[in-house]
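Worked example (supplementary).
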Amino acid sequence: MLHDLSLTELAGLLAAGKVSSVELTRHFLARIDRLNPGLNALITLEPSAALAAAAAADLARGSGKNSPLLGIPLIHKDIFCTAGVRTSCGSRMLDNFISPYDATVVERLKAAGAVMLGKANMDEFAMGSSNETSYYGPVKNPWDTSKVPGGSSGGSAAATAARLAPFATGTDTGGSIRQPAALTGITGMKPTYGRVSRYGMIAFASSLDQAGVFARSAADAALVLQAMAGFDPKDSTSVDVPVPNYAAALDAPLKGLKIGLLEEFFDGLDPRNAALIDAALAVFRAQGAETRRVSLPHLPLSVPTYYVVAPAECSSNLSRFDGVRFGHRCADPKDLLDLYKRSRGEGFGAEVKRRIMTGTYVLSAGYFDAYYLKAQKARQLITDEFRAAFAEVDLVIGPTTPTPAFALGAKIDDPVTMYLNDIYTIGANLAGLPAISVPCGFIDDLPMGLQLIGPHFAEERILGAAHQYQLATTWHRQSPRGYE
Amino acid sequence: MSLTRQEVEKIAHLARLAITAEEMPVYVQSLSSIVDFVAELARADTGDVEPMAHPLVGQHQRLRADVVTEVDMHELYQANAPAVQSGLYVVPRVIE
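After joint prediction of all chains, the assembly is encoded as:
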């Protein structure tokens, strides 16, 4: 079936003229029509624009053009600005916002010939771990529609897992790519901070936000990252480091690769989860990798550190939504203060308001040193400990999440319990490190993820190790029932 | 509760958020639990560590030449505005 093929296989069919981009696009649009209503993964569909882009890709191919993503459909998380298309960020605040320009990620994938089918549901302003904070309603997990898909990029993850597109974009501020990838049984990659441009990606916590990719294998993720990554003068934190050939790095042998087991990740870990990680380690060892334990004593502070730093940055970033230049405005404001307060009070959902208020509190006079400055010190300690670990090992490994997908509604009323979902993913964001989640087995018939974290700009090593793991395992080839 | 209703009302005002009377108890409770949770940081010995300024070593905020790179697109941008008149954003009167 077309929707089960890898990007390389699809590119081969397109290059050989066995299928056209228009046919491929129709195939995925038909799946979206049939399957999306049960998942709510996409909130904006662009069938006419998609078919036009596909026809243009076919025409370009006919005139001799070729590239790995030419004519391949994709779905963008609705956090990326798309010119002329609603960009809601999952919020009532931006329900009426038509972006005047494309994000750099969107522009690059367009230039690579990829065809946007539509835009994916997400937690409002990327704040959430279950995709239940979206103004457009929750996304369902295709493995069990009574369960959450994870978040914040829950729509992108569910859509990729349900084969509604060969790949999707996402963003990861505290785990928002890796956690939903794990909970939906797919591969999710968060690159190094600064590797992919943040221009046109609606800001949540600017020192943590990074764009990345959902795909069904590390090999596919490598092809997509190739098109997304690279220096962008429009993003002042974009890093001017050459982009290596990720696909060429996939075949590097694992012999001698030193893998560290993060001790802190295994404290109190569900034994069934630990058994999956042990089994994965055996796969790496069988290929000649060496494993040893490493300890990051301050890593357990990641979650409280994050829930100071991220809300602080969010309260600052979201001050731009003032009801004046774009976005929701309340009816009949009696004065400017009333306009600000009611537009924001009505436009933002409960979790976003909670984060803005948390951030306002930790930045306010009298609390700044105790919370914000303290958190930035803890963040430095955690980053230093990662750096020390990477002097000893090439990659560190652990679970992506503590548990498989949980029931819709189970944690939404208890923010701290919800925040603890990101206990294993936040460290990489605080330290700006690249990381991937790949499927590594099942608990209670629900998929689980294995996380690989590397030093800055070690995307090649991470993708290579993940690819070698996927050559030796079949977890990433499992489809949820009803979506084969 | 580590935060009082009055404190949360003040935070909401500083954040320019209208919070209804029915919503307020939920925020007092949940913000208190978040503040208690992050208070764990106080126990960490951070010694004389410098607060982190950038995730990547040696990176700093890049500057660009002070030249105009954008063309005038105010009509396109203002198409998203709730109220515009003669190319200006309209807000309630602020000067009597």
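Two points are worth noting when inspecting this output. Chain A touches chain B through 74 residues (CB under 8 Å). The radius of gyration of chain A is 21 Å.
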